[in-house]
């Protein structure tokens, strides 16, 4: 039995603590009294994953065993989470490969011929052939690609269909092939509480017309947090849409959860608590610092992007989405939930090299914002770890660097929109339609590997709640120009950042460092 | 004797200035000023110019602007093509407001005038060429012939002197009386404004057409003004480096100002189309604006215009061109590349586009100069000739220093 998550209070004996800062990490000494949130120890992974998958498919929640749903002549669409999950990418074989292979085995045994595989990339960039191969495995790739293994195209009007409308007037429009299938098998990997469940099909296979109902500033500001589905307006919308889908399409979902082993053994110290580092861990850290510092930028990026996580699988559950997801959330909470007693004046987050939208790519400043003020700030239940009007301190170098193929509309958003306003509501009102309907962005989304034109705006909305909640945002070690463009202040050191924060929270603030990775979901009481 | 700044022939200084100015383009802030110092320009006392030829009038320059073409000359950027059209040593300065020192038909001595610097047949006492006869004196074919030595303009001719001196010579046909209430600092803008009027007329901007103006120095800003006065252009986008340039461009009617770094990208958002990334060179648009004006005279400015004008559109070269530019877009996008030089006097009957008869640009410019309040602050730095190095340095860094037009007052100091 692993140890539960806990909150450390920094004292004289506390060593310097690891803080991520993009493609790097540092050891930082925090002021005495700083609270540090650690997740529970990494849970043991399931030893025989294939057996667990079979068991889940044969003993589903709220549905018949998968083989009973399969019959000759039926249309089967297997949909899987795209490259944005898990983070970092997992070591092969990918869990999706194992699940898909088993599903296809049952389908073949049942005589199902009409099978299509779809990546649920929504408005994310299309996965490359190599990325698809890595996700589904060689055997499936060779058998299905390219004719029957595809990316979802949210702009292909001919292959979208309106399934219905929720009681709130939200249009549910998804991939036509999936909607017209006799069965959708959705293969999910859940990393945080926001993923899986109602989100999978309703978001992963949707069009902009459908997504705009929940990917907007109002919804994001009322999702407190979006990692806590019962209190997330965004998830309420997903649930309503999933209800419409359930009336029209049969979805059999397979959800799996991973443990906290986010980094490979050579940087295993990242997965451990600092005072428990062995001599080997300390040597690894020193070697890592040296090598990372010396490596040319391109090589450094490659090294980080190729540090595949040796995740253990902590649970596999299958069946009706609404029945499966509570098991998934429970597994996520077992791995991540840490009770925190009250809020503090200052929250500190070290931002890692990866977020859902820079896999094999570049973390541009807009993504840094969405990772810090969106994903990590929202890793809480009940209340943010920082009080209303408090200060968020984030670590990231934030270079003004963009991937020209993956993020073309991000560049325009950064240059032309953020130079005029940072207000999410104003941005939504004034620019969303332009970015969402720009034919060039649409062309690049459909034919190249670009994120949809509206995506950078969504990423800005992702931080809307934090922008409203925090009194000040300071980035340690960030490029000043880029941070200023985003509307944030910069500091060279934590000491400077704390000094700057005094203007907002006074001279003796309480501080909480939300340590990650592994991810911890702060349950703030 | 009369004090004057004299440009003389010196290959060594020409090359030194060119080298230093090139270094300046790479970021050295002082290089521009140094280039001004090493360029082949000197302050001299020389005999006052003497008239004699029919119609020639002696002038006492009151104010004379420093133009981008002057700076290109001093920095060694000017095209060698032009060397055949100038005679050295000459006194630069072709943006001139002056006082006449002698009487001429219809023009009493002591009149305050601005000078149309073009030196056509009338000034050269040659038979009238076809271009001058058609009112296109700026295209005069006798520019190297007649009573005057070669010189495309006043300020490039060894015989006429120029504005950067206390004495100059001009033909009466070059002179336009300045209205009583128009201050010298605004009058000195009439010549560049006439050029802008001419450029805009040459471009034949269709109603509603989208326009890009590259550069927000004097030429760029006055082009914006002329676009709004003489065309029914739709959106006018201006590439401006500095905050004061952006503010002035917007005050004169620019729809939006763009930072130079991402012009193609920003224009794509405003006008549609797609952005393409060649292996070498800047991005370009498939799509873009209808008309582009290069008002920088630099290769980069023209390149920007060529890459951002839509297929079949028009690129107008308002600045005196320098440097090499990839002309592939002209070929591939079937662009109309329009040259526009100085201004045209036109014919008594006025403009007739069908007959390629230009309108009289100077009178229009004079009218505008007195009417547009925003022009009042354009000339914000006036130097005596003795401080010419500072003046040139200031003019080279005008944008960065928050200035638009730097001028000499030859009678000061």
UniProtKB/TrEMBL annotation, chain A:
Recorded hits in InterPro entries, A to Z, give: LarA-like (IPR048068), LarA-like_C (IPR043166), LarA-like_N (IPR018657)
- Pfam families listed in its UniProt record: Lar_N (PF09861)
The UniProt record lists the LarA-like N-terminal domain at: 37-225
What domain of life is recorded for the organism? Bacteria
This one is known as DUF2088 domain-containing protein
Upper taxonomic lineage: Bacteria, Bacillati, Actinomycetota, Actinomycetes, Kitasatosporales
Automatic annotation (TrEMBL), chain B:
Signal peptide positions on this chain? none
Q: Which residues form a coiled coil?
A: none
| Key words, A-Z | Oxidoreductase
**Which pathway?**
Metabolic intermediate biosynthesis; 2-deoxystreptamine biosynthesis; 2-deoxystreptamine from D-glucose 6-phosphate: step 3/4
Enzyme Commission no:
1.1.1.329
The record's section on InterPro entries has:
ADH-like_C (IPR013149), ADH-like_N (IPR013154), GroES-like_sf (IPR011032), NAD(P)-bd_dom_sf (IPR036291), Zn_alcohol_dh (IPR050129)
Domain (Alcohol dehydrogenase-like C-terminal) spans 219-343
Enzyme class, spelled out: oxidoreductase
The domain of life for this entry's organism is: Bacteria
Q: Which residues form the Alcohol dehydrogenase-like N-terminal domain?
A: 54-179
What is this enzyme's catalytic activity, as reactions? 2-deoxy-scyllo-inosamine + NADP(+) = 3-amino-2,3-dideoxy-scyllo-inosose + NADPH + H(+); 2-deoxy-scyllo-inosamine + NAD(+) = 3-amino-2,3-dideoxy-scyllo-inosose + NADH + H(+)
Q: Would the keyword Oxidoreductase turn up in this protein's UniProt record?
A: yes
What is the similarity comment for this entry? Answer: Belongs to the zinc-containing alcohol dehydrogenase family. DOIA dehydrogenase subfamily.
Indicate what this protein is called per its UniProt record.
2-deoxy-scyllo-inosamine dehydrogenase
**Native species:** Actinacidiphila epipremni
């Amino acid at each position: 039995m692993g140890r539960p998550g806990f909150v450390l209070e920094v004292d004289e004996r506390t060593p310097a603590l690891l803080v991520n800062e993009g493609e790097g990490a540092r050891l930082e000494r925090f002021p005495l009294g700083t609270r540090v949130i650690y997740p529970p120890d990494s849970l043991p992974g399931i030893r025989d994953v294939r057996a667990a998958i079979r068991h889940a498919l044969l003993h589903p929640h709220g549905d018949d065993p998968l083989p009973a749903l399969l019959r000759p002549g039926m249309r089967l669409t297997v949909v899987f989470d795209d490259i944005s999950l898990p983070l970092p990418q997992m070591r092969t074989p990918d869990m999706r490969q194992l699940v898909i292979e088993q599903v296809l085995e049952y389908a073949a045994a049942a005589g199902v011929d009409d099978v299509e595989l779809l990546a649920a990339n929504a408005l994310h960039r299309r996965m490359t052939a190599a990325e698809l191969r890595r996700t589904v495995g060689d055997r499936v790739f060779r058998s299905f690609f390219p004719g029957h293994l595809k990316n979802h195209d949210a702009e292909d009007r001919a292959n979208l269909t309106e399934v219905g409308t929720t009681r709130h007037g939200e249009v549910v429009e998804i991939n036509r092939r999936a909607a017209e299938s006799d069965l959708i098998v959705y293969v999910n990997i859940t990393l945080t509480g926001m993923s899986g469940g109602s989100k999978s099909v309703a978001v992963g296979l949707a069009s902009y017309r459908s997504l705009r109902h929940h990917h907007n500033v109002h919804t994001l500001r009322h999702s407190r947090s979006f990692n806590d589905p019962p209190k997330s307006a965004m998830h309420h919308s997903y649930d309503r849409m999933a209800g419409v889908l359930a009336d029209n399409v049969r979805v059999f979902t397979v959800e799996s959860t991973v443990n906290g082993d986010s980094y490979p053994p050579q940087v295993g110290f990242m997965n451990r608590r600092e005072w428990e580092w062995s001599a080997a861990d300390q040597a690894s850290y020193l070697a890592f610092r040296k090598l990372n510092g010396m490596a040319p930028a391109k090589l450094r990026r490659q090294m980080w992007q190729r540090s595949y996580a040796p995740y253990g699988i902590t649970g596999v559950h299958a069946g009706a989405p609404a029945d499966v997801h509570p098991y998934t959330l429970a597994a996520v909470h077992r791995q991540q939930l840490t009770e925190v007693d009250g809020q503090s004046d200052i929250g500190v987050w070290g931002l890692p090299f990866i977020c859902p939208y820079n896999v094999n790519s570049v973390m541009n400043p807009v993504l840094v914002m969405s990772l810090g003020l969106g994903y990590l700030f929202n890793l809480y239940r009940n209340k943010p770890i920082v009080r209303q009007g408090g200060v968020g301190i984030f670590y990231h170098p934030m270079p003004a660097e963009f991937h020209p193929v993956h993020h073309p509309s991000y560049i325009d958003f950064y240059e032309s929109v953020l130079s005029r306003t940072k207000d999410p509501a104003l941005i939504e009102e004034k620019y969303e339609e332009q970015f969402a309907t720009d034919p060039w962005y649409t062309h690049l989304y459909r034919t190249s590997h670009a994120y949809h034109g509206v995506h950078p705006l969504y990423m800005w909305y992702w931080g809307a709640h934090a922008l409203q909640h925090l009194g000040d945002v300071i980035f340690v070690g960030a490029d000043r120009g880029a941070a200023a463009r985003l509307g944030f202040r910069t500091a060279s050191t934590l000491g400077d950042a704390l000094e700057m924060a005094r203007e907002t929270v006074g001279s003796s603030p309480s501080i909480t460092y939300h340590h990650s990775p592994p991810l911890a979901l702060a349950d703030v009481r | 004797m009369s004090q004057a700044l004299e440009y003389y022939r010196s290959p060594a200084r020409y090359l030194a200035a060119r080298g230093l100015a090139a270094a300046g383009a790479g970021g050295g802030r002082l290089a521009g000023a140094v280039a001004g110092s090493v360029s082949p320009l000197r302050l001299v006392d020389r005999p006052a110019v003497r008239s004699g030829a029919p119609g020639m009038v002696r002038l006492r320059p009151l104010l004379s602007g420093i133009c981008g073409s002057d700076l290109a000359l001093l920095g060694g950027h000017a095209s060698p093509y032009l060397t055949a059209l100038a005679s050295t040593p000459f006194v630069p300065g072709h943006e001139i407001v002056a006082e006449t020192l002698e009487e001429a038909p219809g023009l009493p001595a002591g009149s305050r005038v601005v000078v149309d610097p073009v030196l056509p047949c009338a000034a050269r006492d040659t038979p009238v060429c076809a271009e001058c006869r058609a009112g296109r004196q700026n295209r005069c074919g006798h520019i190297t012939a007649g009573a005057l030595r070669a010189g495309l303009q006043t300020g490039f001719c060894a015989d006429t002197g120029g504005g950067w001196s206390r004495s100059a010579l001009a033909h009466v046909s070059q002179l336009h009386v300045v209205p009583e209430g128009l201050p010298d600092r605004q009058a000195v803008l009439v010549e560049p404004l006439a050029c802008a009027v001419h450029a805009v007329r040459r471009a034949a901007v269709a109603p509603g057409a989208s326009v890009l103006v590259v550069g927000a120095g004097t030429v760029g800003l006055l082009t914006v003004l002329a676009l709004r006065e003489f065309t029914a252009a739709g959106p006018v986008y201006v590439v401006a480096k500095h905050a004061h340039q952006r503010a002035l461009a917007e005050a004169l009617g620019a729809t939006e100002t763009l930072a130079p770094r991402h012009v193609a990208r920003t224009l794509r958002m405003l006008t549609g189309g797609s952005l393409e990334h060649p292996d070498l060179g800047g991005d370009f648009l498939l799509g873009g604006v209808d008309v582009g004006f290069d008002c920088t005279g630099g290769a980069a400015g023209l390149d920007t215009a060529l890459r951002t004008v839509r297929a079949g559109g028009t690129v107008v070269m308002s600045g005196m061109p320098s440097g090499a530019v990839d002309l592939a877009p002209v070929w591939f996008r079937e662009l109309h590349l329009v040259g526009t030089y100085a201004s045209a006097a036109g014919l008594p009957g006025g403009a007739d586009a069908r007959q390629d008869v230009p309108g009289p640009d100077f009178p229009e410019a004079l009218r505008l100069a007195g009417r547009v309040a925003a022009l009042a602050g354009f000339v914000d730095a006036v130097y005596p000739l003795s401080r010419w190095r500072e003046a040139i340095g200031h003019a080279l860094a005008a944008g960065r220093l928050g200035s638009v037009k730097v001028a000499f007052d030859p009678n000061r100091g």
